[in-house]
Amino acid sequence: MNLQAILDDIVATLRPELGRSGKVADYIPALARVPADQFGIALRTADGQEVASGDSATPFSIQSVSKLFSLTLGVRALDEKLWERIGREPSGNPFNSLVQLEREQGVPRNPFINAGAIAVADRLLSVGDGLDDLLAFLRSLTGETITVDEEVAASEAATGFRNVALANFMKSFGKIDNDIPAVLDVYFRQCAIRMDCRQLARAAAFLCRDGVHPLQRTEVLGVRQARRINALMLTCGTYDAAGEFAFRIGLPCKSGVGGAIVAVVPDELTVCVWSPALDATGNSVLGMRALELFVARTGMSVF
Ligand code: DON
């Protein structure tokens, strides 16, 4: 299969659509001014081949895609114990919703909604250095320098009233151990990490290799742990659009409001698409279209 030709063809097919539909995240100025007419795609195969097309080397705010890597660190450090305070069911609600949390006594439905990721950040602070561990992990997975966009991080903190509410709400149920400002600092800064499609495809490649590190022979996660992360991506990785993603794409995916979506084809490859304009659920419009084209042209699916 000529993967380069497939990616180039997806870029050519979507180019006329750039900037036509969806809306760039505008809750902070640093994201609102990102030009909508950008599209990148990159993949890394299980045997280490890397292929890319379009704006694949343009860095962006990874936002909620960071939840994939913080969850991986949490599973690595705590394994089953992580699930004492975090569920594994789709929420069927927007990623920043508060209502479910009250009904379910401060236990977030899953680690990919904001409340779940804040709970994971709390656990990472209890077992290690929080954000420093996450950055070191991403540097190890990519072999490259990975940094936080300080302007985005400061704006996340200045405007993240709902996340402050979610964290305090969980604390009121005794489900957060560390100080709220420290926990939120990890969460806001992880959202503000900057990476490009190429780096994200490489960093998430352990998920198509049953947990084996993309650049080393070491284990990032055990086989069962890696498969479970893929299961969570399929059922919860794109919030209340997870059903639509499974229906239209049929791969485990994790999205972020920076416009990135990471998708995994187990035993084959990991692909990252990026285009900043989002639909109403916070998922990249052209990213989703690109993944549909990708599975149609490669025949790849978990089903
Ligand atoms: O925490 C927030 O609400 C933002 N930083 C958005 C994170 C995100 O990407 C959620 N979903 N797509």
Automatic annotation (TrEMBL):
EC number: 3.5.1.2
Amino-acid positions noted as binding substrate in the UniProt annotation, renumbered to this chain: S64, N114, E156, N163, Y187, Y239, V257
The UniProt record lists the keyword Acetylation: yes
MF (Gene Ontology): glutaminase activity
Keyword Transport: no
Assigned keywords, A-Z: Acetylation, Hydrolase
Catalytic reactions on record: L-glutamine + H2O = L-glutamate + NH4(+)
Gene3D superfamilies assigned to the protein according to its UniProt record, in alphabetical order: DD-peptidase/beta-lactamase superfamily
InterPro entries: Beta-lactam/transpept-like (IPR012338), Glutaminase (IPR015868)
Enzyme class: hydrolase
GO biological process, one term: glutamate biosynthetic process
Pfam family, one: Glutaminase
Superkingdom field: Bacteria
Family: Belongs to the glutaminase family.
Assembly and oligomerization: Homotetramer.
Protein name per UniProt: Glutaminase
Organism listed in the record: Bordetella genomosp. 13
Lineage of the species this protein comes from: Bacteria, Pseudomonadati, Pseudomonadota, Betaproteobacteria, Burkholderiales
